[in-house]
Amino acid sequence: MRITDVEVLVTCPGRNFVTLRVRTDEGVHGLGDATLNGRELAVVSYLRDHVAPCLIGRDPFRIEDIWQYLYRGAYWRRGPVTMTAIGAVDMALWDIKGKALGVPVYELLGGASRAGVLVYGHASGESAGEAVDAVGRYLDLGYKAVRVQAGVPGLSGTYGVGRGELFYEPAGTGLPREDVWSAEKYLATVPSLFARVRDEYGDEVRLLHDAHHRLTPIQAARLGRDLEPYRLFWLEDVAPAEQQEAFRLIRQHTTTPLAVGEIFSTIHDATVLLREYLIDYLRMTVVHGGGITHLRNAAAYADVHQVRTGCHGATDLSPVAMAAALHLDLSIPNFGIQEYMRHTAETDEVFPHAYTFSGGYLHPGGSPGLGVDYRDDLAERHPYQRAYLPVSRLEDGTMGNW
Ligand code: GCO
Ligand code: MG
Fold first, then answer.
1. Closest ligand 1 atom to Cα of 210
2. Which end of the chain is more exposed for a tag (fewer CB within 10 A), N or C?
3. What is the pTM of this model?
4. Can 327 be counted among the known catalytic residues?
5. Same fold, 3-104 and 117-368
6. Where do the structural domains in the chain lie, given as residue ranges?
7. Annotated active-site residue in 29, 212, 213, 305
């Protein structure tokens, strides 16, 4: 089998997605997600101008060799644009191999290690009361784990507060929106939010929270400690993820489990965190972490350090990335939880998929390959729209971390 054609497809069914389609001389094709939120077209060019010409004529079954060719062969290693592009190729090749052999990708990865993939949904509200009510809606849908975020009184546009009831979409069309941030005001409100949620729904539901890289190490330590009575499943990105050593300080002060890594592009971003047992969950996922091939290695390294996975699964990861993550989640020994933000109906129509939700779990389904299709006829109705994530300023106007 040979690769004959490589297409980079851009569509905006409610938000932008970049999809790679790799075609072969035997008629089988594979899909990969190449979406890098707010920087989409950089990956389009990387793939179209630099990667696609190198793939034509290659044997798509040689997944590992092609991964090494793209990673080692570029010389300029790592980074989100490069690793997203490699991730897209890698997903498409696993998809091709699964389809050609007539098996779902998880069978190629060693088979199922569990019956289903535990997921968490996003409950949020402008006020704590709205957020508490939103948790109830997720429990009614059968979720066993819920991330809870609420607006902070006195701050406009707090991270994590959604616009719809089940959707959270931070990117907006046009130039970046500017939010205002105060760690002091935020820290004063989060513990009482979780007190209310526990009070209302009891001990069983798994609760998660994301601080989105916004605290200093000592503030992060304080938040972790203040949240201990509410026994979170995890506290995510409590300090800037690239400052791995900062987690030494945080870890000494709190037993709240920590999750980091959605912005990491290779395992080299997480080696201190893992080697020194500074986190409990690794958030890397297939699209921004070099595909199934690299994420499988990252998960194995995490497993050695008793760290479980918690793959990023926001709406900016397309159903192709979600499916790829689910095949990996189902198969690896140290799966922890999978983020599951529902896509809009328009997105689901462009990407019909075999994965299904039931009782708080997702399953990738039994279709050969990844189990996701791409409807060109529908995708073409939604042309690319310039869109960015917001930026964040402190109350005096200083730039902060979004
Ligand atoms: C999460 C993330 C998202 C990101 C978004 C960036 O935990 O789901 O933090 O909300 O901000 O995916 O593209
Ligand atoms: Mg996050």
1. 7
2. N
3. 0.97
4. no
5. no
6. 3-104, 117-368
7. 212
Structure tokens at 188: 């004063």
CA-to-CA distance for 271 and 306, rounded, in angstroms?
A: 13
Amino acid at 172: G
Q: Are 70 and 83 spatial neighbours (Cβ–Cβ below 8 Å)?
A: no
Beta strands in 89-231 (DSSP E): 117-125, 145-150, 172-173, 178-181, 206-210
Instruction: Please state, in angstroms and rounded to a whole number, the distance separating the CA atoms of residues 251 and 218.
Output: 10
Which residue is listed with tokens 């569509």?
11
> Helix, strand, or coil here: 99?
helix
What is the reported pLDDT for 159? 86
CA 272, CA 274: separation in Å to the nearest integer? Answer: 5
Q: Count Cα neighbours of 312 within 13 Å in the Cβ-side half-sphere.
A: 27
What CATH architecture is 117-368? Alpha-Beta Barrel (3.20)
| pLDDT tier for residue 48 given thresholds of 50, 70 and 90 | very high
Which fold is adopted by the domain 3-104? Enolase-like; domain 1 (3.30.390)
Give CA angle at 365 (32, 328), nearest 5°. 55
Protein residue with least CA distance to atom 1, ligand 1: 314
pLDDT of residue 164: 66
SS3 content of the chain, % helix, strand, coil (to 5): 40, 20, 40
Mean pLDDT of 29-51: 98
Check if the beta carbon of residue 40 is closer than 8 Å to that of residue 18.
yes
The DSSP code sequence of 337-358 is EEE-PPPPHHHHHHS-BS-EEE
Q: Atom 13 of ligand 1 has which residue's CA nearest to it?
A: 37
Query: For a pocket test of ligand 1, which of 122, 258, 316 has the largest count of ligand atoms closer than 8 A to its C-beta?
Result: 316
Ligand 1 atom closest to 212 (CA):
9
Q: Whose CA is nearest to atom 6 of ligand 1?
A: 37
